[in-house]
Specification:
heterodimer; A: alpha/beta; Amidase signature (AS) enzymes; 11-stranded mixed β-sheet; globular; B: Arc Repressor Mutant, subunit A; 3 domains; 9-stranded mixed β-sheet
């Protein structure tokens, strides 16, 4: 193969081991492509070309040695270039979270997920764009410019992990890490025609993930296909003593063979996920995909998740409430940006007033209000109760079905500026993705078609707690028998 | 302040909040060492977690939980099987995360009590709640070259704290002091911390209100801060009670506020009023799962609780016939009570009361001179017992024993060696003593005459002369007896 950036992750691993190409060549191919395309796409906020090449040389030496001796298997992802959302800490690389307030901040520690991947041998090419502190559904809320959708440069890539999704779609990395608080992996995966997992809450460590909504935040991964995603997921999953909310359960090895038989698997299709105002082509593609799963042997039935309509208001109380506390540390005192002033309070006011963007300030105020004395019970307290009902919807559903299939978003990628003046319309982008976060269940998004403008459409499979493997198996069977995931947005 | 007549019409109602540092090796939510905040170099024990860096997460220190539970059990609290950490939100530069991790709706424990001893006798103070939280950093305000700025030291940030809140069961400065001392003793008994108020490991904040005696409603309360000694505590509460009563007497209102104790001026001064009070917007800490304390763990902790001061105080009176005062002096510190009981068990031939007197008198005096803390290494129990045995047996006399004790203290020398070295054995040999007495009587014929003429009080003078002649080594009992015998003989001869 001439263009090494067209390889899938598992083929790249194979090629490196075989010595078909060097790691240096693989990394250079990606860096070249980034240099050519990313001026326009703006998927990356920071590129560590020098560091990546240095690590590539080390990987090449390790691989050469291994090929000679054939002793002790090299790390599973040795030499694989990936991208990391700029909301996960990578030691020595700037971490802005898409915000001016953290401009210049370089964390002295790795996120656990990053550390695990580095131990597995990956090479981090750089940090990808995000809505400021992951608050947004289009990456338009980044303080460092928008990221363009590789399928159509006038469209958003989705958000908040828009940079990671665009990077994987445009072949600027073999895979990427993202985070999903209310759909921030799945929705950009859907908009950019790639695959992405939001694992079960507690399955993957949040240590080093800059917190937005702590009870909802999960680190996820993007790949060209679900097999690539599964490879990354396997590496990052597992309990972490630095994150008390991780669950100590074994991570079963995910073996995706050639079997496409979905042998009487029960798939539930929630009627609440097909709403008026939905883009008809999206509904069509989703129904078609479900039919395809049925043809592979699955048993499909309509189910109900009756509290779905409350997910949006519940989410927009809980996430901002947690955010209002999580973002309190950005006071200009210890790190990041500070605007000097005469008094301590003026430092706080001016730093936070000037350096946070509008959406972040809106959510901080929303959350502060929801937690205020006299309002707590009516807002935050009530939202927690309804969250329990949403959770129970899923628990009940999973007594009847094995997985739930639904659209990721009501529309395909929308044009820049379409929702920027109407926060509520923007929030509606997340209606189908929020429930999985509120319930904490895993969800996997992957492409199942395109609209007439050639924009990708994504389906999500939601599973019971800690059943990521089942989601991967079903999606893999789908991808073995379809080719949506093989389409590439750019011929360059 | 002087006691005023009209004060009897008023009644003080006081509740106390205490923040006790938990003497763990590492901090509450990270692995940073807990260092002495008063001596350590600033920011020497700080990591991304306690500095509130982006993306980091807290992990509960199990040792802190255990100490907290131990104290809660010692306070006879009900320990909740599941308690919840919560975020207390406010901005301040000494609070790195912008929130303090504390406990709010479901604290570690609640509904306990502590027995205190006052001049009115024993009294039970109800404990409302006991909860875990983390400490803040420390700000120092400095002016240099005409510019003023603040320095932040995060060594203390994240140090585990236990907050202990009473019901408003206290009614005088004396009771508040007694409560604070009883709590301090229990903290030390349970090895929760050193109880050192100067070092800030135990911070006491009384909530004081005053009402007309018999009134059904509580008065408006103020909270007093900045109290770093028991004396300051007692003075501040007494001052505040009278200040509030004075206001009420004048028909004025008490303002709900936080007041600081000004040691130099001897008064409380307004710091922050209710209007400026924070809305802390507490909500459950999403980064920490509920804290579960199962019955096995609870039992294990329970087993580690020592006999508590008040129980020991009672037992010492019953078992050894000590007075309430002596028992209190010995049980204020667990280490002293242990020392006393070790001595008693090693020396069944000695009266416990004698041992108690020596410990609370001479030994305390020497410990105080040596720096204050009672340190058994300075005077091993065996050494004290040995010395007191010689005294009991009459080998040495009381003044000699005191002198030897001072020599033994801190030197590791044994009583026997010192007595030998200095030739201090008491002389009980009657022949020798009779000779000394004869010599004294011979050399003081005038005094003998006066004595025989009826001034019997001179007997004491002769005694002193004999002891002087014997260089203090004569057994006073033997001297007394022999002297009386010889004087009697002289009388008879006459």
């Amino acid at each position: 193969m001439n263009d090494l950036t067209e390889l899938s992750l598992q083929r790249a691993i194979h090629g490196l081991r075989q010595g078909d190409f060097s790691c240096r060549e693989l990394v250079e191919a990606h860096l070249d492509r980034i240099q050519r395309l990313d001026i326009d796409l703006n998927a990356y906020l920071f590129i560590d070309g020098e560091g990546a090449l240095k690590r590539a040389e080390i990987a090449d030496r390790q691989l050469a040695e291994w090929r000679k001796s054939r002793q002790s298997e090299p790390p599973p992802l040795l030499g694989i270039p990936i991208a990391v959302k700029d909301i996960l800490c990578v030691k020595g690389m700037p971490c802005t979270c898409g915000s001016k307030i953290l401009e210049g901040f370089v964390p002295p520690y790795d996120a656990t997920t990053v550390e695990k991947l580095l131990n597995a041998g990956v090479i981090i090419l750089g940090k990808t764009n995000t809505d400021e502190f992951a608050m947004g559904s289009s990456t338009e809320n980044s303080a460092y410019g928008v990221t363009r959708n590789p399928w159509n440069r006038e469209r958003v890539p989705g958000g908040s992990s828009g940079g990671s999704a665009a990077a994987v779609a445009a072949r600027l990395a073999l895979a990427a890490l993202g985070t999903d608080t209310g759909g921030s992996v799945r929705q950009p995966a859907s908009f950019c025609g790639v695959s992405g997992i939001k694992p079960t809450y507690g399955r993957v460590s949040r240590y080093g993930l800059v917190a937005y909504g702590s009870s909802l935040d999960v680190v996820g991964a993007f790949g060209r296909d679900v097999q690539d995603v599964a490879i990354i997921f396997e590496q990052i999953a597992g309990a972490d003593r630095r994150d008390a909310t991780t669950v100590d359960l074994p991570v079963p090895p995910i073996q995706l063979g050639q079997n496409t038989d979905l042998d009487s698997l029960r798939i539930g299709v929630p009627k609440e996920y097909f709403i008026p105002g939905m883009q008809p082509e999206v509904e069509q593609a989703i129904r078609q995909a479900i039919l395809h799963l049925q043809e592979l042997g699955a048993v499909v039935e309509e189910i109900s998740l009756p509290h779905t309509e409350y997910a949006l208001p519940v989410y927009y109380l809980i996430a901002p409430a947690e955010a209002s506390a999580n973002l309190a540390r950005y006071d200009g005192i210890r790190y990041g940006q500070r605007i000097s002033a005469e008094t301590m309070w003026d430092i706080f006011y001016r730093t936070r007033g000037k350096k946070f963007g509008a959406e972040v300030k809106r959510r901080i105020m929303l959350g502060t209000y929801a937690l205020s004395a006299g309002y707590y019970d009516a807002y935050y307290g009530k939202a927690q109760k309804v969250r329990t009902l949403i959770k129970q919807d899923f628990e009940r559903a999973f007594q009847r079905v094995d997985v739930i299939a639904a659209p990721v978003a009501p529309t395909t990628a929308f044009p820049f500026g379409e929702h920027t003046d109407d926060p509520l319309a923007m929030y509606l982008e997340d209606v189908f993705t929020l429930p999985a976060n509120l319930a904490g269940v895993p969800a996997l998004a992957f492409p199942v078609g395109f609209d007439r403008e050639g924009l990708p459409i994504g389906l999500q499979l939601m599973g019971n707690y800690f059943q990521e493997e089942l989601l991967f198996r079903i999606a893999h069977a789908y991808q073995l028998t379809t080719d949506w995931h093989l389409r590439s947005p750019m011929s360059t | 302040m002087a006691e005023l007549d009209w004060m009897v019409d008023y009644e003080a109602v006081i509740g106390v909040e205490v923040h006790a540092e938990l003497a763990t090796r590492s901090k509450m939510f990270c692995s940073c060492a807990v260092v002495d905040a008063t001596t350590a170099q600033p920011n020497i024990a700080v990591c991304p977690v306690c500095a509130g860096m982006p993306g980091v997460l807290p992990v509960v220190n199990q040792a802190a939980v255990e100490l907290g539970v131990r104290l809660a059990l010692a306070l006879e609290c009900e320990v909740l099987p599941v308690s919840i950490f919560a975020r207390k939100n406010y901005f301040y530069p000494d609070l790195p995360k912008g929130y303090q991790i504390s406990q709010y709706e479901q604290p570690l424990a609640r509904n306990g009590k502590l027995i205190i001893l006052t001049s009115q006798g024993e009294k039970a103070v109800r404990i409302r709640r006991v909860h875990l939280e983390e400490d803040t950093g420390k700000l120092t305000h400095v002016t240099k070259d005409g510019e003023s700025y603040s320095l932040i030291d995060l060594n203390r940030a994240g140090v585990p704290l236990l907050e202990i809140v009473t019901e408003p069961d206290l009614h005088s400065a004396e009771e508040v002091r007694a409560y604070a001392m009883a709590l301090r003793n229990i903290l030390r008994y349970c090895e929760v911390n050193s109880g050192d108020m100067q070092k800030g490991v135990m911070r006491i904040e009384p909530n004081v209100s005053v009402r007309r005696r018999g009134a059904a409603q509580l008065g408006t309360r103020t909270e007093i801060k900045n109290l770093n000694s028991f004396r300051a505590l007692e003075r501040a509460v007494a001052y505040e009670i009278e200040r509030q009563a004075q206001l009420l007497q004048e028909g004025k209102e008490v303002i709900q506020e936080t007041r600081g104790w000004d040691e130099a001026q001897g008064k409380t001064v307004s710091q922050r009023s209710k209007e400026e009070a924070h809305d802390y917007r507490y909500f459950p800490e999403p980064d920490l799962p509920p804290l579960v304390i199962d019955s096995d763990w609870l039992e294990e902790i329970c087993r580690k609780i020592p006999e508590l001061p008040v129980n020991r105080w009672r037992r010492l009176q019953e078992q050894y016939g000590l007075s309430p005062y002596d028992a209190e002096v010995l049980t204020n510190e667990r280490i002293v009570a242990d020392y006393f009981e070790a001595a008693v068990s090693q020396a069944p031939h000695l009266a416990p009361k004698t041992i108690a007197n020596w410990i609370s008198g001479e030994v305390f005096g020497l410990m105080n001179q040596a720096g204050g803390e009672f340190d058994p290494h300075l005077l091993p129990v065996e050494s004290l017992v040995e010395l007191l045995t010689y005294l009991e047996e009459g080998l040495i006399n009381q003044p000699t024993a005191k002198m030897i004790l001072a020599e033994m203290f801190g030197s590791g020398k044994r009583a026997k060696t010192l007595i030998k070295e200095k030739g201090l054995e008491q002389v009980s040999d009657e022949a020798q003593i009779s000779e000394w007495i004869s010599q004294v009587l011979r050399e003081n014929p005038e005094q003998v005459q006066t004595y025989l003429n009826g001034k019997e009080a001179l007997e004491q003078w002769f005694f002193g002369q004999v002891m002087r002649l014997a260089a203090g080594k004569a057994n006073p009992k033997v001297v007394q007896q022999a002297l009386r015998g010889q004087l009697l003989k002289l009388k008879e001869q006459r």
